[in-house]
Design goal:
By secondary structure, the protein is α+β, with helices and mostly antiparallel strands. The chain is built from seven helices and eight strands. The chain has a domain of 96 residues: FAS1 domain (Roll). It has a four-stranded mixed β-sheet with strand order 2-1-8-7. Strands 3-4-5-6 form a four-stranded antiparallel β-sheet, with no helix packed on it. The C terminus is likely disordered.
Length: 181
């Protein structure tokens, strides 16, 4: 009887670990959650699904309500039929993603500056309530974090947009070289 109990407890432990090992990735979690239907359409139209599947990431994901309040609208990004619109949408999406697994609890109480997948720095102010992602055109955390197999989704109340305060010349070029004229 002890062997049967041991076998059963081993099977239950295996089943529980297998369930967590097969939890959906960030992309699948966004697709399955109705509050991110517009964001999912933008991801699909921009052809960067792989960024939400590979690596360990945290996505500061604007909800449908946040995207509906975007002053210029997002309809063009949801289809991205124009190559320029597609590139702009990609830049916006990559600005919302940072490497690693972060939660509001780990960000709370500190001010952190990290690189986004867009390769720009973003400031996350965990000393504010709600926590602020980005600066002047950033967003506030607007819901509980959602765990995925490869990261975390944190709902936000706006479309975070990187604000350029100063334009640096592209790497290897200087204004003096005339490359930027």
């Amino acid at each position: 009887m002890k062997k049967v109990g041991l076998v059963l407890s081993t099977l239950v432990a295996f089943a529980l670990s297998a369930t967590s090992a097969f939890a959906a990735n960030v992309y699948d979690m966004l697709k399955a959650d109705p509050q991110f239907s517009m964001l999912s359409q933008i991801i699909d139209a921009s052809d960067i699904k792989f960024r939400y599947v590979e690596g360990t990431i945290t996505v500061f994901a604007p909800t449908d309500e946040a995207l509906k309040r975007q002053p210029s609208g997002v309809d063009d990004m949801m289809t991205a039929s124009n190559p320029t619109v597609k590139e702009n949408a990609r830049a916006l999406l990559l600005y919302q993603i940072i490497k690693g697994r972060h939660t509001p609890e780990t960000l709370s109480g500190t001010v952190t500056e990290v690189s986004t997948l867009q390769r720009n720095k973003v400031r996350i102010d965990g000393t504010q309530t709600p926590i602020r992602y980005g600066g002047q055109f950033g967003a506030n955390i607007a819901g509980a974090a959602i765990e995925a197999s490869n990261g975390v989704i944190i709902p936000v109340d706006a479309l975070p947009i990187h604000f350029f305060t100063e334009m640096d010349p592209p790497e290897g070029q200087t204004e003096a070289s005339g490359a930027l004229n």
